[in-house]
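Quick entry between incubations.
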Amino acid sequence: MTASLRRIWGLMYRHLALYRRSWPRLLELTYWPTLQMCIWGFTASFIASRIGVGGQLAAGILLGGVLLWEVALRSQMGVAISFLEEIWSRNLGHVFVSPLRPWELVAALIAMSAIRMAIGVLPAILLAWALYAFNLFSLGPVLVLFAVNLMAMGWWIALGVVSLILRHGAGAEALAWSVLFGITPFAAVFYPVSILPAVLQPVALALPAAHVFEGMRAALDSGTIRWDHLAWASGLNLAWMFAAALLFARQFRAARTSGALLSIGE
Amino acid sequence: MTDAIRVSGLTKRYGATLAVDDIAFTAPRGTTIGLLGGNGAGKTTTIAMLMGLLIPTTGSIAVLGHDMAHDRFAALARMNFSSPYVALPARLSVAENLRVYGHLYGVPQIGRRIAELAEQLDLGDLLARPAGQLSAGQKTRVALAKSLINRPELLLLDEPTASLDPDTGDMVRSWLERYRTDSGCTILLASHNMAEVERLCSDVLMMKQGRIVDRGSPADLISRYGRDDLEQVFLDIARNRREGAK
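Done. Structure below.
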């Protein structure tokens, strides 16, 4: 194992050990996605029963949207909350004076986020199949590309949140939970971008999620794979990730200059 | 051989506040240097800059031959730090905490190293217990074990025996003396326990209002100030009675 991988694993081990001995934390990971799936699943069933054939498609779009949006949401929270765990345990001082590089810290947070997301969302996917006969995997291999793009979006948004926490301390903590909810209206999760007012459409199209969900609807509706939307989503993610990495590096240095690392969380 | 610490022209300014004001010092390898001063004297800021946690406004720091401005990670792998004011994750067991830091510092054969430290610092019964359930003294010993996990060549200790009963405090001090002798480690010790500083330190830096206002061996300082112990010297400096007893 290279030195970098070992340091990344060290930080992951710290979080995995926490989950190993805390079933409430594990329950918390699955609670919200499962609850969402129940609420929206019954709503979708109701719509399908009232509208008929078209309703089946609407129900599928609704359930697919709920499940895939949870992928983005859990990925974002996974990074931000794992970072907050270090603040809450007053452990950041030790972490930042270890040889762990900032990019290794981010890599460990992202790896933990992927694990948290899988633990949280997979039961909801299984529940959708068991209760509502909705099989997200019927989208085929393209589902992997959708999921990867939504995870990446969650990660760069989380990196932005972590940057703000580094800069502004505990005052920015609430963003870890709320930021993605604020983006939901523009992410075109449940409706096409064309439904949005013209002035808001460029905002939506600047978000990778809007392209992913356009692609998901096309796949569910006609079975076609919209490579153009996938390309846009991937390109936007790369650009946003680069911007978020720059912001993080800048805020980390600013925190080292201002002394914020000494008092973060207070 | 290069000094373990070489600081020159080090200044840290927060807006209008001058936290550290143009200090310079060196710590030869294998020595224990005491950093003393009242609250707000600049000790914590100085230690934070030595660890790369804080970027100096001006000045340079070289640790174990590495320039902390450009090569801090190479130095960080060879040093470590302990403070009762920085916690370890409370819900992880002591062994898990030490394993985490063993990985972060790239320690080979972590299990064996943890067993060694447990024996030397009498932590055997604590390894399986969550760090958050330990007494203050036990936490201090665990923090010390964490700081020794990578066999550091430079150890920065902030109040290493705070909260320890006299017996355990004495055990830790003896252990630190032995560790320094056996390993050749350099120790920078910030402490308000003057007897501890007298016992452990070969040199003492006295800080006040961000400046190093005096330095020397404990015996030299005591002699120069005409006092009986370092605590009286500390009070003279804190109360502006420079070499006051003479």
